[in-house]
Write a structure and sequence with these properties.
The chain is an alpha+beta fold and about 500 residues long. The chain is about 65% helix and about 5% strand.
Amino acid sequence: MSTDDKNRAIAAAILPLVGGAENISSVAHCMTRLRLGLRDRSLVRDEALKALPSVMGVVEDDTYQIVLGPGTVARVTPEIEALVAAAPKAAHSADDLAAQGAAIKSAQKAKNATPFKLFLRRIANIFVPLIPALIGCGIIAGLNGLLINLGWLPGVTPALAAIASGFMALIAVFVGYNTAKEFGGTAILGGAVAAIIVFPGVAKIDAFGQTLSPGQGGVLGALGAAVLAVYVEKWCRRWVPEALDVLVTPTLTVLISGLTTIFGLMFLAGEISTAIGEFANWLLAHAGAGAGFLLGGLFLPLVMLGLHQALIPIHTTLIEQQGYTVLLPILAMAGAGQVGAAMAVYLKLPRNGSIRRTIKSALPAGFLGVGEPLIYGVSLPLGRPFITACVGGAFGGGFIGLFSMLGDSVGSTAIGPSGWALFPLLDGNKGLGATIAIYAGGLLIGYLAGFVATYFWGFSKELLEEFNVETETAEVTVATGTESPAREPEPAKV
């Protein structure tokens, strides 16, 4: 037997005793030892390994080390590597992708725990509880607008208008309440200070050379007023005697914060709110296609980084000012790109039943704008399909932005929903029919662009070979309710 054949025989004898090629994650060697990274240590047959004539011993460390001796180990290691490389690839199931996606999500969550991102999360905690009311009132407002345009039920439309508008008229109070609660103050005091902003009597007050108007400053003013109230309250709790606390603390909190709100915050927040609305309209009117392309393409990464939460007060401000936010339909295109990418992955992996079943089960939610199962269960763990999904979102966003440049604004009367779920909340400046058509066109462009980009550029040759393999998970036959043959399930490991 030649030396090469001998080394090859040693490698072939070792491999099945360490659990086979699929159990090896890494191969290396030092002067005397073959160092193997193992996926499952329990598959190793230690005594059988030690009994091999070429094996001098085994050592348990961060890697599994087989002592072969100097010279021999350097020649056997390439043979082991060749056998591992030549072995059939292990099937990657949807569970593998889900585990990888969960790890990515957990790691990203840890990275997001910076002071700035934690602050954004607190801002989100203020506005997210308001979303159900925004959605309900937004849908009622849309229904009322449709009835008015059709001339139907004229006796009912004023009531529907009151129902739809009541919450928005007092949204500053709810923002103030939630803000104080989130920042550790007395919630009702935050609401009381914020209520000053919407009180009709402020129209009799002059500040900075102009007469205030009810609602001036909106949700941003309410946010600032409530945060100020929290700090005033905490200061009072430290310095006011306990016997007087119940009377003095709430009085000083409302008085100091209220005066500051009237003679400072309302004007300042009003200027900022106006600037936000004017900038959003100007951006889409003059650079709509480019802005839509960037916003639609970058939204998924913003979600991963936690920076999308900074947009919530902006959406709410636009809804309060204009009746709808022109940004949300553009950002919703990111979900369309994700759906298109998932459909391409489904077609590119015809042999991987596990991943295909995951995509089939997650697609209905994806069409309704719930993209997390597809992001963390499919595209992000695969890598390239996440990028091509962003490409789909970019083209969809650019499509809607282009129509904004042409004078057709598409907006949403509430935040939260996306995908098909956004249709009942759509509003715009050119009628409901045109608005729906433009948004639907954006979705179709996003689906198509995400699909094409993923199908042709979403997989490297190596990635396709790795994942387009048969999975051994039992498949359920819907027609008969029976299961196709599969390997026996392994006992659960505790």
